[in-house]
Amino acid sequence: MSDDDALEIAVAEYRSRIKNGVIFDSATQRNNDAEKQIAMSLRAFRAQVEPQIQPASAETPRRARVAEGVVLVGTSDVEDVRCYLDDYKTGSHLRMYHAQLGGYALLRESHRGVIKRLRKHFIPRVSLRKPYPGTRTIEYDIDISKKAAWSIIQHIQRDVRNFITTGDPEVFLCNPMSMMCSEKYCVCYGTEFCELTKGVSQ
Question: In this model, does residue 131 exceed pLDDT 60?
């Protein structure tokens, strides 16, 4: 696919996703900025990330039963022919994703797959007034990432069991500082179920 075709698809997807409204920030202050940043990110991906990838499959959904009544599901961005798992991230801030990538590794191994490398490719979104810093490829320790994922899986299982037993929503750890704590990502946000956000309007 040519760069022009890829950019046309990306911009069309962006416009589709914002048709019901969008909130801009200091790095992206208007639609025109966003579309220029999409083009910038595409060029960076093609030049700096794509040469590192030898894809065997993309957007591969996997699922595995980890306990009675508990199923782990996930869709990795790329599974490489060299037994690498690669994940793409964009955004204005670089964060760590050990548990997410560790979950993908657990899923791949549950399907008799071998993992030799676990990588995140970060394509930053920066203000057009700043020079583009380039992409970053970060290698994750496979064992540490799998341990992080398994720890969270066990934590979720424990909380669900406690909730079933007690009916008390406070058994679930609430983190209002998380971007996931919002109407967009949590059906409990602003409801009677969640006392911390009850009656809050974003």
Answer: yes
Q: How far apart are alpha carbons 35 and 128 in whole angstroms?
A: 11
Which pTM value belongs to this model?
Answer: 0.86
Same structural domain for residues 102 and 140?
yes
The string of pLDDT tens digits covering residues 134-154 is 999 999 999 999 999 999 999
pLDDT for 202 equals: 52
Q: Looking at the chain, how many residues does it have?
A: 202
Domain match, 167 and 183 both: no
Provide the token pair at 170.
Answer: 């406070």
Residue 192 belongs to what domain range? 172-202
Mean pLDDT of 122-137: 94
Beta strands in the chain (DSSP E): 55-67, 70-80, 84-91, 117-124, 136-140
Phi, psi of 201 (to 5 degrees): -115, 130
Name 182's Cβ contacts closer than 8 Å, sequence gap at least 6: 189, 202
Rounded to whole angstroms, the Cα distance separating 175 from 63 reads 27
What is the chain's mean pLDDT, rounded?
91
In whole angstroms, what is the distance from residue 3 CA to residue 23 CA?
Answer: 27
